[in-house]
Amino acid sequence: MSYKNEIKNIELFFKYCNNLEKIQNFKKQKNPKVSIISPIYNRKKFISRFIRNVQNQSFKDIEIILIDDNSIDNGVKIIEKYKKNDKRIILIKNKKNKGTFVARNLGVLMAKAKYLIISDPDDLLSKDIIRICYKYGEKYQYDIIRFIAYLDIGKISNEKFVNFQKSRPIYQPELSTYIFYGNNELEIIDYTITNKFIKTKVYIESLNSLNNFYLNIYMTSMEDNLMNFILLRIAKSFYFMKRIGYKYIKTSESITKKLFIISQVRAEFIFIFLKLTFEYSKNTKYEKDMLNLRLSYLLKNFDRKLSEIHFNKKFYFFYEVINMIINCIYISDENLNLLHNLKNIIEKKKFSYHKQIY
Fold this sequence. Notes:
single chain
């Protein structure tokens, strides 16, 4: 099936989903085969659409784990309404707001199924993607199956990276990096977690490999990057499926969009990810190239925001991470220059901060 036909079919399905009002009765599966996990924080106006979208998957043997991260918009009442008629829905209520990363992980630990999909509540899955992924997963026992996500405007969001001619599996050691090679040229950089069908045990093993600093950290941005980085080191097999399965809907309420504006918060998440990247690197050639590429991207973008940041005690953390990275022998000259520039800026801000205090 061509991309154009695939997109057209998905669009028709989304229109159907958006207009669907009837709440059906679904029985709880004793041993569900797939867990759909979604953390929810103040997404009241998207909850009904999201639940209906999951309910109308062609694959019915699922459980739907929704984690309310201490929302204040009464969206829980909508979930409870659907829960009465659909025994597959499991609602977890956090007494405190824990952030997207921790909320997702709570859902994973609750999952009973062999496979899982992480989804955001304001996005949508195509109707057949779970059925197709399950079929491939059971037949070939892939640890992770990656499908294509596209933006709500109808364009494939990562089209320029999908250069491989056909669907193909990838195994370690090539898998232990974000970068996959084709004719010695970069082929794809993988950032997201919501376009993946994952074995639950692999996800849990990945969580177990993290220390408490990362497991308990509050993150609402860069959490996909962090988890992908670890997952691709634990998984032994990964399958690129050249099929569109996820619709990312960009809204005015997008958390990520807000965090790009709140540079102080965004800076902290960037440095948390950088810290993890260099602590968990396996130092393969793949990873050295990937780390330099990612570091260059982050530093250039962060450098534009650095002058706007009002530093507080967080700059100690930034300073620590920069020193750790500078000491890596494989950092490119370009990145070393960027790091030294950042270090100088932070030192000046550090001096100014102390001067204000005293």
